[in-house]
Amino acid sequence: MALSGSPELTRWTPPVLDEACKLAIHNLMVKSRACEEALIRMVRTGHGYFWIGSPGEEGFGVPLGMLVHKGHGPAFDYLHLHYRSAPTVLAMGSQPIDLLRQMRSTVTDPYSKGRNFVNHFAIKPWNIVPVTPTIETQYAVAPGTALVQRRHGGVGISIVTGGDAGSAEGDFYSAMNWSTRPDQELPVLMLIAHNGYGISTRAERVQNTRELNRRGDGFGIRNAMVDGNDPIATWNALVEAMDYVRHERKPYILQGNVSRLYGHSSSSGASLLDEPDCLSLYEARLLREGLATAAELKAVWDRWHDALNDALHQVIEEPMPDRQHVLQHVFWDGPAGN
Amino acid sequence: MATLAQAIRLALHYGEEHLGVTDIFGEDVGAPLGGVFTCTQGLKTAWNSPLDERGIVATALGIAYAGGKPVAEIQFCDYIYNVIDLLKLCGNAHWSSAGEYHVPMVLMTPVGAGIHGSMYHSHSFESMATHIQGWKVVMPSNAKDAYGLMLSAIADPNPVLFLAPKGLMRAKGEEHIPGEPEDERQLHQMIDAPVGDRQDWQPRWPAVQDYRVPIGQARTCRKGSDVTVVGYGRLLHLCTQAADQLQEQGISAEVIDLRTLYPFDEQSVFASVRKTGRLLVVNEDTEVTNFGEHVIRRVLDECFYDLQAPPKLVAGLDVPGVGLAWGYEKNSIPQLADIVEAMRTVAQSQP
Ligand SMILES: Cc1ncc(C[n+]2csc(CCOP(=O)(O)OP(=O)(O)O)c2C)c(N)n1
Questions:
Q1: At B92, which CATH number?
Q2: Do A79 and A67 meet the contact criterion of CB atoms below 8 Å apart?
């Protein structure tokens, strides 16, 4: 994949959150939602086996994708994502068709060649390390990339994200502990997308606080909670968090409270649920503030729906993996070094 | 001659200087201790991690993703069981990402019994390890091989698990590592930290040379014609002793040191079995779902009609642990007499 990155920086200045940026946020939220809804339709119509994804997390994930310092190597951000990170990756510039490919498990799926469930990314030119099906392990890995970044200098950070239930795993503790060793603090931005559930288990039945970000208090980690259904509030919270992690080179925990609009996965039916919808809330706001008309907003949806329809037609013609692909990529025999 | 622990240290030093090793870390790996077996003493990139095996393996994975070359240590393999899913992730990252990322890391850990280690310093791990796909697994039986295997492990762009037999850590080699001082006392003065205050101590490294034992290459350490004995690690030495004893009794055993367990050197094993028609596999891991069963299965696949006797496995007893009292260990972990007996049985078995 030929994807370009930003230059190496010594000081990070966030993009300005002006009108154009606010409309760009909307466009990317629609891109992500329309893509996920297309994926759900695929699984319903037999074009995929299983769906798990992000509807309801766009308000939290899109600003993140737009604020990533994108590129390859330790000067840029590393992303340790989970299976609800499509808004972030699509906001960074990935194409929905590639998610359709992964959903259909075609051999053209650039993230896993049809090996992994949808939303399991791996994009080396953007430092997106393989998304793992194991909950929370990514938190323990993030200090490793951050350690290399600490030595490298610059403003690159390691961003790790996951759900609320997963924060009960010891790997969450490992991430806090390894990024706060005395004189060895690491630039890790730990994000929690709190949707109130782990599959069917309600958070309040198994965790003694809703403010999981405060787990950081015991480690002296600066932390905050934000309404993840509000992309503007999230943007501002992320700018504050990133500014700190990039320049102080220390960890930060930001929790975004989000919705799970289609339930956990296709296993629970993937039907629309009655929870606050960050996207319709944001559209109402854009209308209220006079930043867009209803027709303009609809045009955004139409554009992505058309693009996704075209993409689906293309993807269902693409080849599937077969016997000759099974043994590929067991071991790497090229030069070492990512 | 260097001990096995010194050989690992020399290899890691060579790795730091010439093969791009960026981090050598784990519990008590850095100064002042330099590892519970001193394998990492005096190394410039060695550091002490939190006591967190999951964090150790995961951090190594992150370093490898970010272009570094980590050598991480799990202090004893007995404490590796809580990282199995992370080992899985290291081993499947390349395959699951369809080649996008690879994981150039080495994980080393002491294995096996033989040091009166009781329940939690006596585990073997090779049967589990070889069941975790995407890893190469090596296990030296002597200092020079430890050096050569470690350099190959470091140079390999895939995850490599380096299993170091605990019981051999202080065993001196029989052959010099290229560049090692002739006089072992001199080596000791150069690279072993003094007991007591080490604050100002610095090692003086000998100019060790590049020497690799290729991954996947076994070594025949006794030539013979009556029975093939496949061993590795600590028990390899019991296999050669047994072979020497039986030689005096007119039984000629061919002893193969596998050195790499995954991918193991099938061709060397098959060639020997085709010659002797008989196979004994020896290790100290527990016997059920034992790595040696895999070796035997491959021999049955490829050499069935060359066999003149049923292949045999001598391994640890299938009990939950190695008990501290010698009566437990000697009756659950193969001893010289057990190996001699098994060799004789296989060599003399008639239909
Ligand atoms: C280590 C591990 N345990 C269990 C599972 C099965 N599982 C998949 S998703 C999930 C719930 C995760 O909840 P949370 O962390 O809140 O994230 P969410 O799905 O709500 O975004 C579980 C238990 C898993 N994938 N990995």
A1: 3.40.50.970
A2: no
Query: Residue B335 sits in which domain range?
Result: 219-348
Alpha helices in chain A (DSSP H): 19-44, 58-67, 86-92, 96-104, 137-152, 170-178, 203-206, 231-248, 278-288, 294-315, 323-326
Atom number of ligand 1 nearest to Cα A199: 11
A–B interface: beta-carbon pairs under 8 A: 151
Domain end (from B191, B206, B228): B191
What are the structural domain ranges in chain A?
Answer: 19-318
Find the residue in A nearest to B135 (Cα). Answer: A331
Q: How far is the CA of A206 from the centre of ligand 1 (A)?
A: 14
Torsional class of A187: left (φ above 0), alpha (ψ -120 to 50), beta (otherwise): beta
A 151-170 residues inside an 8 A Cβ radius of B = 158, 170
| pTM given for the model | 0.97
**Ligand 1, from A135, A137, A266: best to mutate by most atoms within 8 Å of Cβ?**
A135
Task: Clarify whether residues B62 and B186 are in a common domain.
Answer: yes
What's the A61 CA to ligand 1 centre distance in angstroms?
Answer: 18
Spatial neighbors of A12 by CB under 8 A, at least 6 apart, are: A69, A155, A242, A243, A246, A247
- Is A228 close to ligand 1, i.e. is its CB under 6 Å away? no
pLDDT in tens, B151-208: 999 999 999 999 999 999 999 999 999 999 999 999 999 999 998 888 889 999 999 9
Residues B157 and B37 in one domain: yes
Query: Searching chain B, which residue's CA lies closest to the CA of residue A336?
Result: B157
Q: Is residue B210 domain-resident? A: no
Express each pLDDT in B5-51 by its tens digit: 999 999 999 999 999 999 999 999 999 999 999 999 999 999 999 99
Instruction: Please indicate, yes or no, whether residues B186 and B37 belong to a single structural domain of this protein.
Output: yes
**Reported CATH class of domain A19-318:** alpha beta
ipTM above 0.95, yes or no: yes
